[in-house]
Amino acid sequence: MQTRSELKRFLDLWNTLPETVPRPRGGLKGMRLVHFKSRICDPQWLDDYEQAIAKIKTIPGLLGQNNRGWCITVDWILRPLSVSRVLEGQYDHWGVDRKPKSAYEGEAYGA
Question: Which residues sit opposite 32 in a β-bridge?
């Protein structure tokens, strides 16, 4: 089944992020699994998420090194636009003393 193998691939890659990034307990279940299945139906997201996770490793602000101590979560990466925004460079210069170019945290979570 593609979903199971893709889920394993996603979680294995997610777990390569620094330890400051929370790990989903027990894998993806419930609404997280629903959102993951929605994302893998999007060919662009499926093509891009690995590259986005690699890039996230280079952006301190997404890894908790920011003025609020905020860190990405698996819920954040499963938002419809998070992967695209990472690859577009919207968070590239976000670090300890800088804010992201655009603040989208108040957006409603969509599937």
Answer: none
65: which residues sit within 8 A by CB, 6+ positions away? 95, 96
pTM exceeds cut of 0.85: no
Token pair 């990405």 in the structure block, residue:
72
Residue ranges in 1-110 assigned as alpha helix (H): 2-14, 30-40, 43-56, 74-77, 82-88
Three-point CA angle 50, 52, 53, nearest 5°: 65
CB 77: neighbour CB atoms within 10 A? 23
Nearest to 13 by CA among 56, 53, 59, 55: 53
pLDDT digits (tens, 9 = 90+) for 37-54: 999 999 999 999 999 999
